[in-house]
Design a protein that fits this description.
8 strands; PyrdxlP_homeostasis; pyridoxal phosphate binding; 45% helix; Pyridoxal phosphate homeostasis protein; PLP-binding_barrel; globular; alpha/beta; 237 residues; 8-stranded parallel sheet; 10 helices
Length: 237
């Protein structure tokens, strides 16, 4: 099976699995978005996914994202790119040039830099706040107090070009489903608390769930799942 057919079949299978999880959880059909994580995969794989009707992508590394998406996001208006990896301040300028959302905001200093760069080009950008709920190797806000501080910073008008939309997390790498489920439940609970405290922000996006745990994430309230290997396979081309 060639690359495009394989990716088409994988996307069809995953969309069915997402629909099944929505239905099983009593959630509306189509409430969960599928993001194709294309890190380490070539432009040909991205184009194959696009040809299969996939338009939302996630990239971890800014330099790689620029190489693949700089022209694509301007020539194909349907394509939307999210930056999902740890982001250094010196990479923000290039990120906002190609992305519609930065999902990995993990500190106030990063918000300040995003605002600085967006204000220069008069662009508004969506952000998700990364919350540490279990995966030890990952960064992120560790307490609701820390989330309160960054949301208050935004609410006080310090970052008018930054649009908070919700939260992102990564579950621990474990076969223990209870730990995975707890990680997603913790994010949902933190999000609900922040929604009550900051009703002026539409903090509805919950980016959680990857290739190995996305169905659990949907059951726990995910609105966006980040799938890479399940779509593109292991890096073999």
């Amino acid at each position: 099976m060639d690359l495009e057919n394989r990716i088409t079949e994988n996307l069809k299978f995953l969309r069915e699995k997402i629909s099944d999880a929505e239905r099983r959880s009593g959630r509306p059909s189509g409430c969960v978005k599928l993001q194709a994580v294309s890190k380490f995969h070539p432009l040909d794989a991205v184009l194959a996914a696009v040809n299969s009707g996939q338009f939302l992508f996630g990239e971890n590394r800014v330099q790689e994202a620029v190489q693949k998406f700089e022209k694509l996001v301007h020539t194909e208006k349907k394509i939307e790119l999210h930056i999902i990896g740890a982001l250094q301040r010196n990479k923000v300028k290039n990120s906002i040039a190609i992305a519609s959302c930065i999902e990995s905001v993990d500190r106030i200093e990063l918000i300040a830099e995003i605002e600085k760069q967006c204000s220069k080009v008069e662009k508004k950008i969506d952000v998700l706040f990364e919350v540490h709920t279990g995966e030890e190797s990952k960064s992120g806000f560790r307490t609701t107090d820390e989330l309160e501080k960054v949301l208050l910073y935004c609410a006080e008008g310090n970052a008018p070009h930054v649009c908070p939309k919700g939260f992102m997390t990564m579950a621990p790498f474990t076969k223990d489903e209870s730990l995975i489920r707890k990680s997603f439940c913790d994010l949902r609970n933190a999000a609900e608390k922040m929604q009550r405290h900051y009703p002026d922000f539409p903090l509805k996006e919950l980016s959680m769930g990857m290739s190995n745990d996305f169905q659990i994430a949907i059951e726990e309230g995910s609105t966006l799942v980040r799938l890479g290997t399940a779509i593109f396979g292991e890096r073999e081309y």
